[in-house]
Amino acid sequence: MTANVKGDIAPGSWNPKRDRARMVQTIVKIIFGAFAAISIFTTIGILATLIFETVAFFQEISIIRFLTETRWTPLFASKQFGIFVLISATVMIAVISVLVALPLGLLSAICLSEYATPGVRKILKPILEILAGVPTVVYGYFALLTVTPFLQTFLPNLQGFNALSAGLVLGVMITPLVASLSEDALYSVPRSLKDGAYALGATKRETVVSVILPAAVSGIVSSLILAISRAVGETMIVTLAAGANPTLGFNPFVPVMTMTAFIVQITAGDAPHGTIAYKTLFAVGMTLFLMTFALNIFSFWFVRRFREKYD
Questions:
Q1: What secondary structure does DSSP assign to 3-54, as a single string?
Q2: Which SS3 state, helix, strand or coil, does residue 224 take?
Q3: Confidence check: pLDDT of 147 > 70
Q4: Is the CB of residue 75 less than 8 Å from the CB of residue 277?
Q5: Please, is 64 exposed, middle or buried when counting C-beta atoms within 10 Å of its C-beta (0-12, 13-18, 19+)?
Q6: What digits encode the pLDDT tens for the residues 252-262?
């Protein structure tokens, strides 16, 4: 028996008007696509500028000189363009910063994830992340006016501008990045793995070392590589604390010049536009871009290769 209810719609007769919804959906797609295109075209524009200006630089200076000369003096009468002078300083300061940030950040993450109570974690994590919001110029003055005089009390050979102070303070700056991302990776390890370890009689330390850290290693390494990329591209701390003396070597007690510090020097107006000294700006920028790009590619590969998937 079929009920004949007033207002029922006969099958096939309902034809809702979707024109307005389709029009709104099309407008939304266009707006979102436009914003996505802005970021894509901006990236393409930056890359094109770097490539064109770098090609112009290498039309005047051979890549052999760029890679083999042992001095960096593009602003002097006797010009040399040994990029490894700047790379060595950049790598040295980045390594010092990682030696500081890795133990501090990882141990902080383990403490927050596995040992701290929810109330303590709720207080400590925002305090730790406040360090990430401090302007880098403040870190630079802290390294120059506080850390360096303190280190000179027991390191008399340490000069006023040096790579050691810059690296130590840079390590403190990137510690929240390592701690926060590593803590997220540790916290995402399934509870069943921890319970299984405890059920087998493992202590908390054994569970952390043997179960949680291996399960979260891809996230921890990714946070570390991201922090290294941040350290390589840092500008103000190294400019204020490490000095501007391009020196080839790995002596952390003397002034050095990183790639970002040289870029700051050129953009401050020390080289006229269009000169070969000015074009070195883009060659150094391209080198810096390739270094960070290689780190990001490695991070992407490592995460895909060693990521653990759980149901």
A1: ---TT---TT------HHHHHHHHHHHHHHHHHHHHHHHHHHHHHHHHHHHH
A2: helix
A3: yes
A4: yes
A5: exposed
A6: 999 999 999 88
